[in-house]
Design goal:
By secondary structure, the protein is of the alpha/beta class. The protein is about 45% helix and about 10% strand. It is built from 15 helices and eight strands. An eight-stranded parallel beta sheet has the order 1-8-7-6-5-4-3-2. Strand 7 (about 235-240), helix 12 (about 270-285) and strand 8 (about 290) form a beta-alpha-beta unit. Helix 8 (about 130-145) packs across helix 9 (about 160-170). Involved in the regulation of homocysteine metabolism.
Length: about 350
Amino acid sequence: MESKKRRGILDRLNAGEVVVGDGGYVMQLERRGYVKAGHWTPEAAVEHPEAVRQLHREFLRAGANVIQTFTFYCSEDKLEISGNVSNISGAQINEAACDLAREVANEGDALVAGCVSKTPCYVKSHSETKVKAIFKKQMDDFLKKDIDFFIVEFVDHVEEAEWAVEVLKTSSKPVGATLCISPQGDMHGVPPGECAVRLVRAGADIVGINCHLDPLTCIRTVKLMKAGLENAGLKAHLMIQPLGFHTPECNHTGYLSLPEFPFALETRAMTRWDVHQYAREAYDAGIRYIGGCCGFEPYHIRAIAEEVSAERGFLPPASEKHGLWGAALGMHTKPWVRAR
């Protein structure tokens, strides 16, 4: 199926459909041995395309409607600071990541989202011209590959996200913008409601939250964004792609400040049942783009797809190997397990 014949992201959301996003990449690939913790750069798209392709494929099988390019922290300034690669350019990574995402998306009815994230340049220089030039360079790489829409993700200053949206909207493609902020607001204290208003006025078609904090906390923040838009008389679709770990502390800087970050977060991992609850609460809050970020494995995405299967009208392929609500336990040889 050619991507141009597919219904776009706004066609789907405007029709009231639930769009299931994919899960986390950098943390999942770090655990698999393809990403170096610390700077979390995505050179694996060039060095180990088979690993990225397989994770894309697992998210698609789990029910994802969107395959994001593995381009997190792929600005030239971030790659230079990381020192992880000296012979691979950001453009090479961006283009390879687009090819991998499109290859897998074409195996199903999925769209490809070209993703940009926060830049070291913003904090270092606070130069709108320099930051926008970085986003423009990334956008040009993505446009060569004709991605379906853009996502601005993992930005903790709304001003930088505004600049990214303003650049990406010049492409005439839809833009989603997600901030990694808490209910208390961005790193400059801008409240979530005001953040949403500023993003929509900058041109974002979809706004929401990703990463840093657990799903139920992120839902609280998206609700504040929704209220801000309503109070301003603005409309936009809502999206959420939270952290896959419990963060009851609800600290302003999220899981980055936890003593377990990044190598001992397993004890905070969400179960599939936690994700069922998250997906239902997100849907009930009016959020129609529901996915995950760091910590979200394919089985978590399957849990989202299964929870909203009635609304979508189908189950994902991966449910062929999963009994709903533990039904497969009925086949266990031990009676006390069957009783569950």
